[in-house]
Amino acid sequence: MLGEESNSLDGGYGWVVVVSAFVVMGLTAAVLKTFGLFFVEIQQHFDELASMTSWITSITIAIFHLGAPVASSLCVKYTHRVVVITGGVLAFSGMALGFLGLDMVWMYATTGFLQGLGISFSWIPAISIVSHYFSKKRALANAIASAGECAFAFTFGPFFQWLIGQYGWKGALLIIGGIQLNICVCGALMRPLKISCLPDSSCLDAQTRPGTQASGRANVKSPVTHKTFNWMLLRRLEFVLYAIFGILAAMSFFVPPLFLVPLSYSLGIDESWTASLLSVLALVDFAGRLLCGWYANLHLTRTVHLLAMTIALISTSLMLLPLASNYLSLAIFTGFYGFFFGTTVAIHITVLADVVGMSDFDSALGLFMLIRSTGGFLGPPLAGLIVDMAGDYRAGFYMAGATLILSAVILVILDQFQQRQEKENQSNTKSEKSVLPYPSLHVLKLQ
């Protein structure tokens, strides 16, 4: 009886999985988002340029994306539980070894590579298993799970700043690594579903008689036979356009959290107030996700139109943010950026599903993240190089805003291409309807 309840969809033990995923999101994505607090500390300790220091975050982001297909494949071969626990150990190792702080290359290998791999092996399976446990309530479950990133980032800003003040940046890394070991606990709670209780099978063998369970399982097609990648997607222009958008967006998205703290320091803002900026960012990000997700479900606007609009608003916010001269103005512009960033995160995966269709969605998501990794890898160092050349952290925000404008242009081109395809499909459908009835009537008369 317990086994049947724990493996049912849209409730029961699934909510335990959602809470576990909520915590995993907080201990991975939120840590990455607030790592900018360590930027100045590490830069001053090693006496390096901003471009060299930013490679730590760049490597973390790139490995996070590049590890996505590997994590997905391991989930198929083993279980989500095993992969998440492995990710927790890797994330802890990256922070704990970074505590030694031997040199910049050491930081690249530990808080960069190992941390990125740990985040990938934790984040990807956590999102995936929630979708397996929920069918009708999948959107709600995913929204709750993803909100962990915002909830933890809201508290991590001032908490990490306090840790750095009390124990130094090295001691703070070690403590954060210890906290990330809780990912392993969350992974242990992610109980694998039986094949018969996956969304496409309607829990058949939980309802069949003991003597017929084998035949019930035989009729269920296991999803583990799906391909990790459908490389033929690269021949579809609409997917290629969206992948280009992903690269340009990733080049920009990770720049503001990285340089927001150094910019506030350059304006003479107190450290305690600086940490609160990250909390403001997380709070409005959460509000933007909920509001945009609710509006998108009304289907009043094409999702690609909505995404293009939010991207344009983000770029505008980034262009205005460097105009801030004190804490209040910086907090206001940061709030605008965070809100519109949240709206983008809420729908960009939905747009991908609209572009490729649900039959190719799993393959498209892994391939999209793999391609997008190049943008996350190049964005922060490029912004750091521009900052070094200009001698001003504002230059990084201008670079991010300009890149997002280009990504919005790509979305407009994608929308035009989709509309043209839809018109062609409609015209073909009309022509088929005008031809098909006649043979059908002829057959009926013969009968």
Automatic annotation (TrEMBL):
Belongs to the ATG22 family. The keyword Electron transport does not apply. The chain crosses the membrane at residues 12-32, 52-70, 82-100, 106-127, 139-160, 172-190, 239-261, 273-292, 304-324, 330-352, 364-383, 395-414. It is a multi-pass membrane protein. This is MOT2 protein. Pfam families: ATG22 (PF11700), MFS_1 (PF07690). Its main location: membrane. It comes from the Eukaryota. PROSITE patterns: MFS. GO terms for molecular function: monocarboxylic acid transmembrane transporter activity. InterPro entries: Atg22-like, MFS, MFS_dom, MFS_trans_sf, Proton-linked_MCT. Residues 14-419 form the Major facilitator superfamily (MFS) profile domain. GO terms for cellular component: membrane. It is found in: Membrane. The keyword Transcription regulation does not apply. Keywords: Membrane, Transmembrane, Transmembrane helix.
